């Protein structure tokens, strides 16, 4: 039997409602679908099996890369498309297969359209990869690396060939919930790095602080974001993470100042609209 060219691999937990539309969007795009369940109490495994997926079971250990690496075990495909239950796939299957058969890259960036409560946005994410060349690392905000932890050789998929639609931040509550989860995992990562002392990877510390600060912004924990970025700036001057943290900190401070200015302006307008001698409650001051 010929080796499959492309398989979709998902890690899921309690996604019975989201999963069907994702699996339907993969039909005709991939040769196999592997769904790794990390402890669902709903019908997620049964739903996956109903759609013809190969279902495996594991536990959730607060580590996205560990789950993704476990999920791909036993998958014989040359290429893996890493998707989640809240992704919807749009593809030109013929063009995608021709691309995968021709490229020499180890990983490919894919356009991901985010349905965000504050407005749509698009970003590039490494979602296609060769499992014999790279693996996942990072408890949260996981990324692909080579055997020596080096960055993989990357290419990009034309948006007309493949794009993903992400529904995970469609509501304000979704964003806060996911950001809060990521903050907890980021802090856990920092604790692990601190326990390593001088042996800890300094670039990983800087990257973790940067991601943590961004998650604090998403969770609207602005003071914690400011403190996190300030620590990164102090510890890692001149690094790429330092530059990104500096930009992010400036944006947070602008937002904080804008909010304070608006609050002050509202107070001034309310005061100006009150009759002379009236207090804040509308009554006469003594």
UniProtKB/TrEMBL annotation:
Pfam families: Glycos_transf_2. InterPro entries: Glyco_trans_2-like, Nucleotide-diphossugar_trans. The keyword Transferase applies. One of its GO terms (molecular function) is transferase activity. Keywords: Transferase. It comes from the Bacteria. The keyword Transferase applies. Residues 9-110 form the Glycosyltransferase 2-like domain. This is Glycosyl transferase family 2.
């Amino acid at each position: 039997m010929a080796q499959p060219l492309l398989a979709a691999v998902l890690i899921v937990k309690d996604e019975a409602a989201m999963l069907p539309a994702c699996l339907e969007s993969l039909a005709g795009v991939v040769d196999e679908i592997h769904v790794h369940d990390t402890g669902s109490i709903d019908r997620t495994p049964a739903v996956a099996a109903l759609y013809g997926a190969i279902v495996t079971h594991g536990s959730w250990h607060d580590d996205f890369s560990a789950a993704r690496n476990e999920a791909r075990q036993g998958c014989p495909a040359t290429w893996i498309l890493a998707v989640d239950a809240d992704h919807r796939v749009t593809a030109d299957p013929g063009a995608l297969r021709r691309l995968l058969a021709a490229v020499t890259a180890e990983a490919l960036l894919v356009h991901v359209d985010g349905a965000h409560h504050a407005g749509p946005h698009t970003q590039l994410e490494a979602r296609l990869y060769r499992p014999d060349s790279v693996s996942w690392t990072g408890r949260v905000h996981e990324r692909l690396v080579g055997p020596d932890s080096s960055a993989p050789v990357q290419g990009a998929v034309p948006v007309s060939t493949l794009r993903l639609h992400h529904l995970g931040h469609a509501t304000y509550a979704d964003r806060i919930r996911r950001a809060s989860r990521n903050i907890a995992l980021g802090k856990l990562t920092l604790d692990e790095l601190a326990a390593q002392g001088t042996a800890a990877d300094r670039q990983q510390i800087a990257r973790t602080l940067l991601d943590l600060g961004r998650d604090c912004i998403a969770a609207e924990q602005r003071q914690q974001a400011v403190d996190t970025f300030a620590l990164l700036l102090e510890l890692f001057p001149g690094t790429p993470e330092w530059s990104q943290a500096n930009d992010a900190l400036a944006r947070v401070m602008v937002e904080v100042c804008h909010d304070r200015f608006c609050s002050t302006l509202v107070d001034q307008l309310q005061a100006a609209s009150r009759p002379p001698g009236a207090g804040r409650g509308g009554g006469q001051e003594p």
